[in-house]
Write a structure and sequence with these properties.
The complex is a heterodimer of chains A (126) and B (369). By secondary structure, chain A is an alpha+beta fold. Helices cover 19% and strands 35% of the residues of chain A.
Chain lengths: 126, 369
């Protein structure tokens, strides 16, 4: 799957969709494929303050627990409640219904620390 | 069998796994398929139809001689000499403290025995049996890595295998075996497995393995046979309440602690570890393996602490999501006696938070009969 061109990426395989001062965050198709069947997602609470690149939760597949890092810092405004009962949504629609959480950006300059689709493509080709 | 420059060995089916797109991981000294398409899809194939497994990483020893049964009875907890020809039996080799060196299966053929040991213990067990040969007259041959082992497991195993062998597999009893041919190639066929389903294990020459494997898959693809990796195998065996060496049992955790009392024959005259196991059983104050079902969505994982009230009562030995147990999270725990009774409420500490768990009787899953 080609990387969606309207998103920014992190080296930890998260994607960010910017909408004004709010960022929607998920994991990439590459990440969900590497993890395999996702059975549990642990997200920060709504209202929590998170730091860019901080460890804010876990994504668990059948066999492994992987740390989840946030590519954007700020205040968590919403989490994807669908994942409570259907964590495999992250496998099926990593860039759509499988989004993880939304953050109100503390500082829009943070986006300069993220990767373009092309740079992320190179990152996972290595 | 070949060995790569890194020392990780390949089974006779390595090229088949790569061709099928398997994700390979080093396991027990071999490069093994952990999954092909998806662990959950492979699990479903085994429970509903059938799955094909490469178990060639497991150690296979041939035992020959008049006194194999009597000799092995001195090294293991279960009865060996009473195994009839063409019968198989689960067993555990123990150390002087009663700890488990390995859990194994003895297959008694007409003129020899097969002993199948865990891959991770194969060298240790080869050394162990050789060190205890004494004047038994038993002759040992190590087929580890040269012979292959293919398992077909699932409710459709009989109908998938029967057309390709002269052995009457439909009437082969559970934990019995036979010698014959599969696709014209010599095979020991045993009705054994590690999934909680009906099925067979095929001991074949490494040189014949790829042909048998690919023909079974091709001929049964439409009926839903799928290759299954070690990831799904671990979920299947955990649901079926079967111990995995190194998790529910090891050199410190005895067969009695692991709940394998049915296999421990303290009435045998003598075997390594018998006194220690007898004393442990009599005292009945040891930590033991129990099954728990988690109340919530967070999976319990190996090593997580288990609490009974405020008291730390043990730890998790294996844990997984369990598609055949209402999709709940299940785990085996090694806990104090008073925390091991079915119905007891426990808590598993996951990343600093306690999550409710209820002790249940094992196995978690029993196939519909």
């Amino acid at each position: 799957m080609a990387q969606p061109q309207d998103l920014l990426y992190s080296k930890e395989h998260e994607w960010v969709k910017m909408d004004g001062d709010t960022a929607t965050i998920g994991i990439t198709d590459y990440a969900q494929n590497s993890l395999g069947d996702i059975v549990y997602v642990e997200l920060p609470r709504v209202g929590a303050a998170v730091e860019q690149f901080g460890n804010i939760g876990v994504v668990e597949s059948v066999k492994a627990v992987s740390d989840l890092f946030t590519p954007i810092g700020g205040q968590v405004t919403e989490i994807n409640g669908e994942l409570e009962n259907d964590p495999a949504l992250v496998n099926r629609e990593p860039y759509g219904g499988g989004w993880l959480f939304k953050v109100k950006l503390a500082d829009t300059a943070q986006r300069d620390n993220l990767l373009s689709p092309g740079d992320y493509e190179k990152e996972i080709a290595e | 069998m070949t060995t790569t420059s890194t020392g990780v060995r390949r089974t006779a089916l390595y090229d088949e796994h790569v061709r099928l797109g398997a994700r390979m991981i080093p396991f027990g000294g071999f490069d093994m398929p952990v999954q092909y398409a998806s662990i959950l899809k492979e699990h479903e194939a085994v429970r509903r139809r059938a799955g094909l497994f490469d178990l060639s990483h497991m150690g296979q020893f041939v035992l020959q001689g008049e006194n194999v049964g009597e000799w092995a009875d001195t090294l293991t907890v279960n009865n060996v000499a009473t195994i009839k020809p063409l019968q198989a039996r689960y067993n555990i080799f123990t150390n002087p403290h009663g700890g488990a060196l390995d859990d194994v299966i003895f297959y008694r053929l007409e003129n020899r025995w097969l002993l199948v040991v865990n891959a991770s213990n194969a060298q240790k067990m080869w050394n162990h049996v050789n060190a205890h040969l004494r004047d038994s007259g038993v002759k040992l041959t190590n087929l580890h890595g040269s012979n292959a082992l293919i398992a077909i497991q699932g409710p459709k195993s009989v109908e998938m295998l029967a057309p390709h062998t002269g052995v009457d597999v439909a009437n082969l009893k559970y934990y019995f075996c036979s010698e014959g041919r599969v696709y014209g190639k010599a095979a020991v066929i045993a009705r054994t497995g590690y999934t909680g389903e009906d099925g067979f294990e095929l001991f074949v020459d490494g040189g014949d393995a790829a042909e048998i494997w690919s023909k079974l898959l091709a001929d049964n693809r439409e009926a839903g046979l799928e290759p299954v990796g070690l990831g799904a195998r671990d979920v299947l065996r955990l649901e079926a309440g079967m111990p995995l060496y190194g998790h529910e049992m090891n050199e410190e955790i005895t067969p009695i602690q692991a709940g394998m009392n049915w296999a421990v024959k303290l009435s045998k005259p003598e075997f390594i570890g018998k006194q220690a196991l007898q004393a442990q059983k009599d005292a009945d104050d040891f930590r033991r393996v129990a099954g728990v079902v988690m109340a919530g969505r967070a999976p319990a994982r190996e090593g997580y602490k288990v609490f009974h009230g405020d008291r730390e009562a043990g730890d998790v030995r294996s844990g997984s999501t369990a598609p055949s147990v209402e999709n709940k999270n299940i785990a085996t725990v090694l806990v104090d006696k008073d925390a091991a009774t079915p119905g007891t409420q426990l808590a598993v500490e996951i990343r600093g938070t306690k999550h409710d768990a209820t002790v249940v009787a094992l196995p978690f899953y029993k196939r519909p009969s």
